[in-house]
Amino acid sequence: MKSWVPLVIGVLLAAVGILWTLQGLGVVGGSVMSGNTTWAVIGPIVLVVGLVLAVIGLRRLRARP
Fold it and tell me: What are the two backbone dihedrals, phi and then psi, of residue 31, each rounded to the nearest 5 degrees?
């Protein structure tokens, strides 16, 4: 696997996690997910997973010869 793939996936997951959190909290409207507390819980979990993947990807890129 390319060393930049976890970084890209991590950044995308982090962005989705932020969006889902904001929708779950009712900050972002216009969706079935808006105001639903389930997404206010799932969003931060996805955000943390994305950040972990992004850090792994950055470390792999820096460790490349």
Answer: -145, 160
